[in-house]
Give the backbone structure.
Amino acid sequence: MDISVEPPRVAAAAPLLELKGISKRFTGVRALDHVDLDVRAGELHVLFGENGAGKSTLINVIAGTFPPDEGSFHFDGEEIRHLTPQRARAIGISPVFQEFSLVPSLTVEENLFLGREVSAGGVLRAGAMRKKARALIDELGFDLDPGRRVDDLSRAHQQMVEIAKALLGKVRLLILDEPTASLTERETGRLFELIAKLKAQGVGLIYVSHRMREIRALADRVTVLRDGRHIRTLDAARVTDGELVELMTGRRIDVLFPAIPHAPTEVAVDVEDLTLADGSVREVNFYARAGEITGIAGLVGCGKSELVRAIYGLEPIVGGTVRIEGTPYDAPAPRESLTRGVAYFPANRVAEGLALSRPIRENASMTALDLPAFARLGLLRQGSERGLVGRAMERLKLRPPNIERPAGALSGGNRQKVMLGRALTRELKVFLFDEPSVGIDVGAKLEVYEFMKQLVEAGAAVIVVSSELPEVLALSNRLYVMHHGRIATELTGTDKTEQNVLASFFKEHLATEAA
Amino acid sequence: MNAHASSLTARPGIAASYGRSLLGSIGFLPALLIAVVIGMSAVDPQFYGPINIINILRNTALLTIVACGQALVIIGGGFDLSVGAVVALASVVTAKTMGLIAASFPGNDALVITGGLAAGLGSGAAVGLINGLCVARLKVSGFVVTLGTMSATAGVALMITSGIPVYGMPQSFVRDFGRVQFFGLPTAIYVALIVLAVMVFVQRRTLFGRYVYAIGGNTDAAIVSGVGIRRHLVGTYVLSGVLAALTGILLTAQVGSGQASFGGDRMMLQSIAAAVIGGVSLRGGVGRVEIVAISALFLTILGNALNLLHIDSRLQPVFLGVIMVAAVALDELGRRRKQRV
Amino acid sequence: MSDLDLASPAATTPSERRVALLALAWQAALPIALVVLLLGFAAVDSAVLTPGNLVNIMQQASYLALFAMAQTVVILTRGFDLALGPTVSMVSVGAALAMAVGVADGQEPGTVLLMGLAAGFALGAACGVFNGVVIAYLGVSPFVATLGSYNIAIGVATTISSGRPVQGVPDLFSWLLYGGNLFGVPAAIVITVIVGVALHLVLTRTVYGRALYIIGTNPRAATVAGLPVKRLLVATYVLCSTLAALGALMMTARTGSGEPNLGGSLSLQAIAAAVVGGTSLAGGRGGVGTAVVGALFVTILSNGMNLTRIDGYVQMVVLGAIVIAGVVLDRLRLERRG
């Protein structure tokens, strides 16, 4: 096997990786709060937790992307300080991120060897690299052409390149962040075989996943994180799914989610045979009524986010119809959507929501500058704006209540409040929330949910897209589950359970295997 | 269903890569070039006269050398506005140094020429080093840094000469190097071919070339993969400075005097135009010097053809402008279509 | 680029007040540097501080200030206009030609004046529309788009003028835009001040100005918020070229003829002035203030160096060094803010 792995040490009792009291904070948010973790050689250690629990931050610390604020880091018995990505790779820590670390304009082979090219005196040895790349790809059983450019590959193939890249060279600790998110069943099968082989060779693995089935199949131990804190580390063989979910959510389901009195009336949004230009959504039918929350669940890349973005006018549509309150809405565009009373709250508030260096006031009024309350004849009415935004932020309990501070100075929760403030600056009927609680703390989550409750009570139609199952399960009146660009199932009432959602994925998988 | 989905997403990818390789390796540029050449040969026999051809090739050679350096900087995600000024600086530094050494060691032509070349190339490397260090260390945009060094470099060149051509270079340098012809072709063409060959090799076969692509294509990925960003960025600017200096020296040898009016904004803009029309993406990470050379040839022939056709020389920039915008707009539209697939 | 930093990247420094103080210090730094510069030159040559020279400086700076304002509006959207200089040349000869035609036709002086202004502004606006459409709708980077129109405008300017100055600019035109004065203040200064105040109000008090800053700070967020980004970009390039056209007309009035080389290296000079004044090429930061301060700084520097008989070539080196220093400081300021 070309994946060269150093033999495990004889003193296998000492863990390969040992973290103690690791803390990390960003913009006032404690992403990690004294987290402990140890990974043994030959062990697969699952990190389990909701979005925002700190899993990503933790693996980034281990991979050397950024240093921890405090805590100790031991690898192979040695204390590690000032870890950089280069150094991490050099000592055998190999991360596979969800966000690809590939150069799109280079070929598969060039990406595999990036930073570790075979060369003599600065001159590349193309033949040697080609041979090595072929050998590695064959060994892994991936269907990859080393000469193809990465930006010509599908997401699944890019994921394979990413995994292959991590396995090139000396690997002692492999970090996999939801590696199966965009792989097919067969490719997932190959990956699992590979994982077993690596374990047998004494490689330690950190594996981040939401999927119970994978945890059951692979895990030796599971560490549960919640709100940046280490909750417990358990033996995978001796824990039930229920226990894990309970630890992950902290039984906050009843406490955290407000009881929402759904009172559905007429259909506010309906979508018929909707297909998007990039194929991420295909022939989707669904509807959302006023007075209820309609949830859309699904795995990363299933098209759920693209669906609501298309309704708002951010993704090009190639087929099907969107209707708002029964009126066909052709070629949606953001401005027109707002005029029709449809608002979208993006998942990535830094990239798509806020102008960080501008004041909160300007960020909150951004979508309402066409209204006479904010501007007349193109002239801003700043006094009126200050009053309206100030009252909106007061209602949303922005802290501190100074609306002239730049939005970039706010924590995640307060940033989401600024976004929600936009909902209070104009008349809206349909609210499209894309991952509404990503990156915000528990308190702010509760306030966001309360806000949705008020919207529903006022007779609005709310659509919530979320990868966080407990959230959509608890909030929604009706829940659609998407899989590979299509609606897999619609769940209501007592059918609306985690088991049924997961089952709908399996049903798809089984259908594939049968076909 | 799953397998079906993956095959669906894979297929347009193949089509796209096929389309790109067609556009990249054959492309509309050579086609356009051949069309101009055939058209001009039919219209005006003067076009394929030996004097005209040598003229075209010499100008292409000079532009190619500068454009190779420019292309490398752009592939790495930067810009070099200072190349025109470096051409001028290298010219006067070379001439001045040769004059000074010749005054101290009269008759020792080898020493004089070596010293002059070293000083000229060194001045280019120095400007490139300043550019590179500012961009890589201080993380300032390449555009503004080289805008600043452009002004400063042009100023230094003028200070050295007070705007007057510098003479006093050994005859052997001008006669036996600058104006000599091998097999009927001037030296500049051989120098350009060597530079081009070396640059192709650098791009395809060296770590440096690979890393420049990676840095321009996705800086974060390059960092995570352990590529040293700074020294490679500095390297692109230094190389660009040295190549611009080489062009300045060739011009000096050909004309027989060092002049601060060589190069200038025109050379800088032409080098960027050649790179951009030659498929170097301003987003970084994409571009090949051999296509840039073809693009330089195309631009030179186009200018020559417009002259022979007696199209007002003043109107010629309009053609350059339109072609450049059209080339990039087409590229951009193709990219967008690909994303839609 | 992939963003591995999954948590919020905008980490603020612990004490925001200190950062605010630093920002304030930076804001005040350049005006203070201006005064120091003036006093320094005055120490070498007392002629620097005479009222005559001060008015002279102001008048010189007013042209550069206009061009720097023109660049600033597009720099706010993360762009720039390399074609500004050639636009100036083209407007200059175009307006002069139009007026020459009017004079030859025996039109009234007022009509001739209007013809010149209309031709100048129309040419300027046309440049802006070209740049804006190519950038916003064809997706070409501002660099390539305006480099293209740079060449086109040079070609047009030299062709329609046959490369020679266009004579026949009427006295009324020169008086209105150059020779005249208001309470003793020369026309160039009056016009620049009026335009500067108007532009400041547009940037700070109108929906358009607000949208400009938002687009420059986060174009994707602007799109998601429903702002008509493409139309606004076109409008901004038109505004830029129209301001450049005004400056071109004023310079034409000064020289008394349409000059095909009037623009020269103005594109880069204007960008340099804007950047030195503190306009950020990253977009979203800057305004009339930064443009004017930058233009004044550059003008005073060169005026002072002229009076103290510093070689013109040395001045180029100094200007280059100052541009680099300006962006380095801008960078440091950004990092301080985190």
Residues 279 and 331 of chain B are 8 Å apart (CA to CA). Chain B touches chain C through 51 residues (CB under 8 Å).
